[in-house]
Amino acid sequence: MSVMVTLEIPVVKEKIEGFLDVLREALKETRVYDGCQKVETFVEEETGSVLLVELWETAQHQQAYLNWRMESGLVEVLGEFLNGELRPRTFSIRDDV
């Protein structure tokens, strides 16, 4: 079953452009990762908050991707830009509603 994952990322407002530069490169790999159907990026300019909305074939695909990202060290690289905790959420897509 397909899932939608959102990830709210609080970024230090003064560092938003540097963060987005890193994200541009990282999302190239995300978009071609097995099971990724789509990734969109939204920026709340006033606060520097970034919202990623990802569609995955299955929760297992997304979990494998997340494990790979944790192992690759991307979270540590992004750490210098963060202004708080990441807020991930996973939603089942219900086509029957």
Could you list some keywords that capture this structure?
97 residues, four-stranded antiparallel sheet, 3 helices, 37% helix, 32% strand
Q: Give the beta-strand count.
A: 4
Q: What are the secondary-structure elements, in order, as H or E?
A: EHEEHHE
Strand order of the largest sheet: 2-3-1-4
Rg (C-alpha, Å): 14 Å
- The helix/strand class is alpha+beta
Q: What's the gist of this structure?
A:
The chain is 37% helix and 32% strand.
Topology:
Blueprint: E1 3-10, H1 16-31, E2 36-44, E3 49-56, H2 59-72, H3 74-79, E4 87-92
Word description of this protein:
It is a single chain. The longest helix is centred in the first third of the chain and has 16 residues, at 16-31. The model has no long low-confidence stretch (mean pLDDT 94). The chain has helices spanning 16-31, 59-72, 74-79; strands at 3-10, 36-44, 49-56, 87-92. The chain has 97 residues and is of the alpha+beta class. The protein has a four-stranded antiparallel sheet. 8% of the residues are buried. The protein has three helices and four strands; from the N terminus they run E-H-E-E-H-H-E.
